[in-house]
Design goal:
With 212 residues, the chain is an alpha+beta fold. It has four helices and nine strands. Helix 1 packs antiparallel against helix 2 and helix 2 packs antiparallel against helix 3.
């Protein structure tokens, strides 16, 4: 019994998603054995205090497993980047457009657009629409309009804002909460935006399975 209690405590110290999921399988077996320990045992009170911690750990591990399965089935790519000044971790979720875009010289050649979500300790939350080469028609003074359709819903107008670093191939779609709240419940998003000397273009994204 002593070894089971000590083992359970060690397993719950596991760090990292992979170790978390592996340790939970072994922890389930230990939990089953500890549940059968009689009340007369000298460490019974300690076991009763330990059980809620085990349940919380297993519940968190189950949620992580479900999240991992959801991510694997979607087209979203997830990345993290530590802030060099120690502010914390920036998180990103990116999905590539289904269709290809083609612009006039000097941006000729087929390319995909990308939709990127951001949570940054320095820059905050944001929705970025980007292309590999080209320029959005979106000025720092007047901004621009971005038309969005979630699944088969009505067309909605969102504001477009120039990137803080003035990159012409990136536009921020605002407001963030309005966009992301609908994105989470959608399978497809169609976005129309204007491009400098290339008119308006439509970009289609399959966005189901977002874990954000």
């Amino acid at each position: 019994m002593d070894s089971l209690i000590d083992k359970a405590k060690d397993l719950m110290k596991a760090k990292g998603k992979v170790m978390w999921l592996v340790s939970s399988d072994e922890l389930k077996k230990i939990r089953a054995e500890l549940l059968n320990v009689p009340a007369s045992s000298r460490r019974y009170a300690e076991i009763q205090q330990l059980m809620p911690q085990i349940e919380a750990y297993l519940d968190a591990a189950q949620k992580e497993e479900q999240s991992a399965a959801k991510r694997a089935a979607s087209r979203w790519m997830y990345t993290e980047q530590p802030d060099e000044m120690g502010r914390g971790i920036s998180k990103f979720a990116t999905v590539e457009s289904d269709n290809l875009l083609s612009f006039a010289f000097p941006y000729s050649g087929e390319q995909h657009a990308s939709l990127r979500l951001q949570k940054s300790p320095k820059y905050g939350k944001g929705v970025m629409l980007a292309i590999e080469r080209g320029q959005f028609s979106c000025s720092s003074f007047n901004g621009c309009k971005v038309s969005v359709r979630f699944d088969n819903g009505a067309i909605q107008n969102f504001s477009g804002a120039e990137a803080a670093n003035f990159k012409p191939n990136v536009v921020f779609v605002e407001p963030y909460e309005k966009f992301v709240n609908q994105l989470k419940h959608s399978k497809k998003v169609v976005i129309e935006a204007d491009f400098f000397q290339d008119g308006s273009r439509v970009m289609t994204f399959h966005v189901d399975g977002l874990d954000w």
